[in-house]
Amino acid sequence: MSKKLTALLLAVCMASTLLIAGFKHITAETEGPEIYAQETVQGSVILHCFNWSYNSIKTALPQIAAAGYTAVQTSPVQEPKDYGADWTDSSAQWWKLYQPLGISIADGGTWLGTRQELIDLCDEAEDYGIKVIVDIVANHLANDEYGGTFSHLNENVYPALRQPEYYHDDPNGISDDNRWTITQRHMGMPDLNTGHDYIQDCVLGLLCDCVNCGVDGFRFDAAKHIELPTDGDCASDFWPTVISGVLEYADRDLFIYGEILGGAGTDISNYTAYMAVTDNVTGDNALDKANRCAAGELADSTYHKGAAPAKSVLWAESHDTYMSGATSGISDEVIAKAWAIVGARAYSTALYLARPDAVMGEPSSDTAWSSKTIAEVNKFKNHFDGANEYLSSYGNAAYIERGNRGVVISKLDGAGEVSLPVHRMENGTYTDQITGNAFTVADGSISGTVGESCVAVVYNADDPAIEYITASPLYLEPSSKWLENGARFAMYLYNSATNASAWADMTDADGDGVYAADLPYGDWNYVIFCRMDPAAPQNDWTNKWNQTEDLFPDENTNCFSPTEGTWDYGGGTWRLYGPEPTDDPTEPPSNSITVYAINNAGWSGVNVHYWGEANTAWPGLAMEPFSGNAVYSAVIPAGTEGIVFNNGISGNMLQTGDITSGIGDGAVFIIHNENSSHWSPAPTYYLAGSMNGWAAEEGYAFTLNPSAEGRVEYMLASVELPEGAQLKVTDSSGAWYPDGADDNYTVAAAGTYNVYFRPNHDGGGDWHEGWFYLENAVPDPVTLRGDANNDGLVNVTDALCAMRHAMNIITLDEQGAANADVDGNGVVNTLDALNIMRMALLN
Q1: DSSP assignment of 254-294, as one string?
Q2: How far is the CA of 401 from the CAs of 381, 516, 566, in angstroms?
Q3: What is the tens place of the pLDDT at every residue in 320-346?
Q4: How many helices, marked H, and strands, marked E, lie in the chain?
Q5: If we measure between CA atoms, which residue out of 528, 548, 530 comes closest to residue 539?
Q6: Which of 769, 773, 722, 766 lies closest to 748, judged by CA?
Q7: Which are the contacts of 372, defined by CB distance < 8 A and separation ≥ 6?
Q8: Angle between helices 332-342 and 372-383 (to 10 degrees)
Q9: Which of 423, 721, 725, 795 is 20 to 30 A from 607 via CA?
């Protein structure tokens, strides 16, 4: 249990004790830490505490949390080559951490500290909502003075790793366009044979031990030099073994990324199937453009590594560029100008380097990492998590809009007033979170004064990142020009956070010259009214004659009138037409169905494009994660005739073929990468056994389990099973799980059960043959631990009842006392009450 939860339980129980005893409630004088961190590392900001000791990081946690970081990243956790406690010059010693002596957590013998100090850091970081990422060196170990083969192995490398078969033996150099040389030759240090089972076991053991210490993720040094399963004659299963192994071992989400510098000699998707990757080209370019005052190039939205944003890690400066001298001469002010763009981008993870102190283990003497400018960019990224981006430049300013209510401006030529065209932001007044200066958005531009840092972080912290259109229907009163040539009218809706879009036909039912359309189901933060070709009934951009700008109805308005005498983008006015709208377009229509996609392709997100009675514009509606990123769901019209699943990433589009059969409520489809159509209908799974003649009956059909964490899991709820029943799972194609003749499951006692099934065979030790698991669906009330008041629930009321009983204020009945005695010592005391409170809060 986390410290935070323990403290909360103690506080609640103490408050309950005081109230029961007749004392006044006392508010604690000391408030908890401010927490700005996101719940997950992906899409957030990591502080690279390069060369810091664990204790230095722990001491700085209040400042790290206050500056909006979600995670900290340590230097490599393994024991470094040639460590000496008195050798503390960072410039001379830092590289030794990247030449480890073993594949285990160093317990001393390093500038970072002991294993216990790492545990203490992780424990303390949890109180601040901060995740801990550690650096792992798995490609190579330490050499003597030079050379990269076994013969050059450092004499202090751990004895268990001093076998020639654990190393690659090619002494030649590396070519960045040849995977064999990248993965089988050395970088100047003895190159580990990462295809060897023993080395893989060692690395997996290190990762699992880090998880035991409380670590929340890993950066793999020199990841591009470790082979992939797709590498032909030099392929190995290193990555699926260690990544899948630690993910299966961990009891929490882990963030994992690999260092890929320069060309990798393979498609980057072969790496992103397992982890995020560093996009050094995009980050390095941003700093170069900021340093050269090239605003247009700084506003480049391209991810040069080719990975999806959600699989990319960006920086303005890395430890390599700083320690090599390539960026050490660039000022903190210029770093901030680049960070204003890099650190504010959508979906990607950002890494900020805390420039190292001259002394190994000490925190950075350069405190730019906690400056107001950097902290506010970090908080902006957190606030707009999930909102899309729009990068642009004007004059000497590069800027990035997020959602429709925020923008970060990097004014490369210095402080001063700006007036910049905006593309997404709503009209209104906003605040620069750095200076407090007011910025105004009106008539398609934003104006205000950028402060001395040359960066403005403009949004209202109390506002949502995106406001969605709620008026339905929407109305269009066309101008005389728009009415010419028998034009028809349609509206296009767009979600800038998910890239989802939809079209809707507009009609004038009563002939009064005002056209209307109901708002399609979904979240939409822009509408574009379009004058369409009447000879082409399909709504798309090729059939559009004219259009408005991106529009958002002002409060209490729903009808737009284009300016008379204009065609495209001519402006206009909003007003309220007719009665105030009452429909709630956020509620799914009654004539809708839900479809599911099992994401076996490992896409970072899934969209569904559908057509039939209603159509989406490509790439369609963003689906909601149903179980981690393993299963996605979407509500679509019941009259849908066809669907296509895709990853929604422009420029790196992956998609299935057209799906035109099997579309119905609850339909499940599997997205693959290994065949031409990239999809298949999911089988229906059934519990079959001796109790029903081994038949696949609807009454025994499984459905997807919404509570499964990051896995594809099915559930059959509340099924009656007799004692001695023999069980297996079968599917609609006739396959059996398990498939052996003598591996049936035997029901020990008659009862009502929930049955869980995992088609990927990834159940744990309690799962029958790894396939399915049974639990009692109706717990025996006699053994419902914690239910002090016998109402079939365990909640805060039970904890208070147990506390009152312990204090002789009330007397529980025999059953309630037995339930409240959760530690089984025959006495109901305050410790039992505390344990019941834990149970209630964790339910």
Answers
A1: -EEEE---S--SS-THHHHTT-EEE-HHHHHHHHHHHHTT-
A2: 11, 31, 28
A3: 999 999 999 999 999 999 999 999 999
A4: 17, 40
A5: 530
A6: 722
A7: 434, 453
A8: 0
A9: 423
